[in-house]
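Supplementary Methods, section 5.1.

A reviewer requested that the exact input to the structure prediction be made available. We therefore reproduce it here, unchanged from the version used in the analyses.
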Amino acid sequence: MSRQPPVQQPPPVQRVRLRYFKQGPARFASQQDFARAFERALRRAAVPMAYSSGFNPHPRISYSNAVPTGVASLAEYLEIALAQRIDPVSVQASLNRVLPGGFQIMAAVESDGTALAELLTHSAWRIDLGVDATAAVAAFLAADSVVVQRMGKAGLRELDIRAAVVALAADAGALSLRAVTGPGKVVVRPGDIVAGLAVVSPAVVSPGASLALRVAQGVWSDGRVRDPFGPEKLANDAANAGIVANL
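The structure derived from this sequence is encoded token-by-token as follows.
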């Protein structure tokens, strides 16, 4: 018996980008957990989604650069494709009424067609260490190479993270770091930065648990991480202020 070909879905008529935060207990949700919760929210909010073709159509959602599980963020991004035109602000409001606690849409704009990955090349982080890491930061910045170990699906890997750390500073007395990471051979996570500080200054910093927050994502320009929703607007102005001051 011949199988009927799947119905071809019409192309999207609009794409909307969303910036959302992930805070509190929600930071322990994996990206897969969030994706499930977000798709449920889309259905509950009756957002007119465009769907993929094939025998198992699914809503067209593009995620990019998800924060690691356990890390909070003020700057997560995704893009949805719609079957009918709608005001992005109304999408934001509808979703915020039904998203679970710890997730909230902070901004919504119509996509200009540029791939999200091209607009999210750098991340600004705040990492709370519990120790004054001023000396460790100086040693890290002076090093040509900082090799750390990370456990992955294929086992323990050695990664040189130095080139991908664009800016790093310690807040004396505040026991926290400000860091900017960018493109490299590996995607550098906050835990990698803490591990790298422990490598160059083991007497000061110990590898292990730390609290981290991604405060911005965007393109590195003129010493700042620029918001992809507006090239002249600083990503999350209040949180990002001073990320690279005096570097």
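The chain has six helices and eleven strands. These observations are discussed further in the main text.
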